[in-house]
Design a protein that fits this description.
transmembrane, membrane, single chain, 111 residues, ATPase_P-typ_TM_dom_sf, transmembrane helix, ATPase_P-typ_cation-transptr_N, mainly alpha, 62% helix, two-stranded antiparallel ribbon
């Protein structure tokens, strides 16, 4: 798109807007609650705790197995709640942002 120092005319800008649309990036939808929850299970800490729980179960120590399983459950729930809150806060922050650009239209700088 060749443009000189005078920028586009208002008419040219309207034509390009109609042809190409707004100059925005597509937004990714926020992850679903299920996706956030399952992502918590992909943590290295959870893998270690799962391995420890399986080993203790094979060794016949049911009480330790229950304690480790409970730790996995608590870790997963806390991680899920924190990430969900963070995603909601990010969504609210995005609503407050109003991006602006300075452009040259008909030889004049406009916002």
């Amino acid at each position: 798109m060749p443009v000189d120092d005078l920028g586009l005319t208002s008419n040219e800008a309207e034509k390009k807007l109609a042809q190409f649309g707004h100059n925005t990036l597509p937004e990714k939808p926020p992850p679903s609650d299920l996706k956030i929850f399952l992502a918590q299970l992909k943590s290295p800490l959870v893998y270690v705790l799962l391995a420890a729980s399986v080993i203790t179960l094979f060794l016949g120590d049911v009480s330790d197995f229950i304690i480790i399983a409970f730790a996995i459950f608590i870790n997963t729930i806390l991680g899920f709640v924190q990430e969900r809150k963070a995603n909601r806060a990010l969504t609210e922050l995005k609503k407050l942002i109003h991006p602006e650009a300075s452009v040259v239209r008909d030889g004049k700088i406009k916002k």
